[in-house]
Structure formats: C-alpha cells, structure tokens
C-alpha cells in the first residue's frame, strides 16, 4: 500500500514512515512539474530503506538474549 502512495503522493510516504521534514521538502519538490519524478524516486528509495531498517531491527531483536 505504501508503494502505491509513494508513486501517487510521494510526500505522504514520508509522513507514514515518520519523516515529516523530508515530507515537507518532498511536497515542495513535487509542486513543480519537473520535481514530480525526482520526488517519486526519492519516496520509493526512502520506503525501501525503511523496510530494510525494519527487517534489520526485527532480525537483531530476535537474536538478543
């Protein structure tokens, strides 16, 4: 679901992953026609990094005694 949001409303993706300042910057970038594509790419990249971070936290959380 977040991937669809990242493609349609890139700025909203940052708010869903708790990065509001990046969301505001992305919204400003998205308001320009030329900035739409970089904003979308940035949002998809940030979302993939967020998912990776969550997997790492989960893996380390289960190994700790």
Describe this protein with a few key phrases.
65 residues, mainly alpha, 4 helices
Largest sheet: none
Helix percent band: over 70%
Q: Count structural domains.
A: 1
Name the helix and strand elements from N-terminus to C-terminus, one letter apiece: HHHH
Radius of gyration: 14 Å
Oligomer: single chain
What does this protein look like?
This protein is mostly helical and 65 residues long. The protein has one domain (2-63). It is built from four helices and no strands. It has helices at residues 2-8, 10-16, 20-30, 36-63. Helix 2 packs parallel to helix 4 (36-63). The longest helix has 28 residues, at 36-63. The mean pLDDT is 88.
Short characterization:
The protein has helices at 2-8, 10-16, 20-30, 36-63. It is an all-alpha fold.
What layout of secondary structure does this protein have?
Layout: H1 2-8, H2 10-16, H3 20-30, H4 36-63
Helix pairs in contact: 1-2, 1-4, 2-3, 2-4, 3-4
